[in-house]
Every structure is written in structure tokens, then in C-alpha cells.
Amino acid sequence: MNHITKRFGAVKVLDNVSLRLESGEVLSLCGENGSGKSTLMKILCGLYPHGEYEGSIHFAGDEIQAQTIRDTERKGIVIIHQELALVRQLTVMENIFLGEELGRFGIVDDETMTLRC
Ligand SMILES: Nc1ncnc2c1ncn2[C@@H]1O[C@H](COP(=O)(O)OP(=O)(O)OP(=O)(O)O)[C@@H](O)[C@H]1O
Ligand SMILES: [Mg+2]
Questions:
Q1: From the centroid of its chain, how far is CA 59?
Q2: pLDDT tens-digit series, residues 49-87
Q3: Domain coordinates of the chain in residue numbers?
Q4: Which of 50, 57, 94, 98 would be 65's cystine partner, CB 3.0–4.6 Å?
Q5: Side-chain half-sphere of 27: how many Cα atoms within 13 Å?
Q6: Helix (H) or strand (E) holding 63
Q7: Does 36 sit in the ligand 1 pocket, CB within 6 Å?
Q8: Quick check: 1 and 18 in contact, CB under 8 A?
Q9: Which atom of ligand 1 lies nearest, measured to the CA of 82?
């Protein structure tokens, strides 16, 4: 994510933020309440579409100009929202694939989904 700036009306909540992740890297984004962590992730996943922020996003070499969350999901970017409902009885993996379970002939393939996580 390169030089991301996001405003809600007159309020600038992200000011020229850049974030780089390598394949396989696990990264924690830490900051005070209201510092803009969720907003940055909503931009990454397409919830705030291209055009509603300044800056650019590249994923695996390609520029992403997502209009919907579907556009990023197709590329393998999946967000688990902070506030929205997780199914507590399901595992992290099951929540990630909720509604998009992998499998064949109506049988869910846990092994493949675990490998993809
Ligand atoms: N849809 C919105 N409209 C207007 N302001 C918003 C909106 N979403 C977030 N904000 C404001 O943008 C700022 C960043 O919010 P954001 O939710 O990204 O912070 P956060 O770092 O995820 O906070 P928390 O640690 O509480 O989850 C806050 O000041 C928040 O009030
Ligand atoms: Mg948040």
C-alpha cells in the first residue's frame, strides 16, 4: 500500500500511509483507538473502493483498483472484520472461508482450506 490518504469529509484519518508485506509474512498493526487501523484494512480489502482514497495498492505485482470486496477476495485478500459477527463455534479457518468453503460434491475439504490459510 503506497501513500494512502483517506478522508471522511473534512477529517483526514490516514495521512500518506505506506505498508509493505512479503509473502508468508505475519504482521501486527498496532495503534491507539481511532488511529486508522481498520480504515487501512478496509481500503486494502476493497470495502472503501478505489477512488475513495488517495494512493495505490499493489498485490503480487499487479495494481489493485478494487470496486468491491469481491475483487480482492478473488485475489486472495480476505478480511475478518473487528466488529462484525464471527461465528464463535467455528475455527479461524472456518470463519475465513465462511460462505466460500472449498470442496467437491458438497463435501467441505478442510485439508485444502487449512493449507490455503
Ligand atoms: N465511516 C466513517 N465515517 C467517519 N469517520 C470514521 C468512519 N470510520 C472511521 N472513522 C474515524 O476514522 C478514525 C479511524 O478509525 P478506525 O476505525 O480506522 O480506527 P482503528 O485504529 O481501527 O480504531 P480501534 O482501535 O478502535 O479499532 C477514527 O477517528 C474514526 O472515528
Ligand atoms: Mg479498528
A1: 12
A2: 999 999 999 999 899 999 999 999 999 898 887 766 788
A3: 2-80, 85-117
A4: 50
A5: 10
A6: strand 62-64
A7: yes
A8: yes
A9: 27
Q: Kindly report the protein residue whose alpha carbon is nearest to atom 12 of ligand 1.
A: 13
Cell of 117: 490459510
Long-range contacts of 83-92 (CB under 8 A, 24+ apart): 92/117
Grid cell for residue 48: 472503501
pLDDT of residue 83: 66
Nearest Cα to 62, choosing from 78, 49, 75, 77? Answer: 75
35-39 long-range contacts (CB < 8 A, ≥24 apart) are: 36/6, 38/82, 39/6, 39/13, 39/14
Closest ligand to C-alpha of residue 39 is 1
Facing residues of 90 across strands?
none
Considering every ligand atom, which ligand is closest to the CA of 42? 1
In the block, residue with C-alpha cell 488511529: 35
Look up cell 466488529; give the residue.
83
Ligand 1, atom 13, residue with closest C-alpha:
34
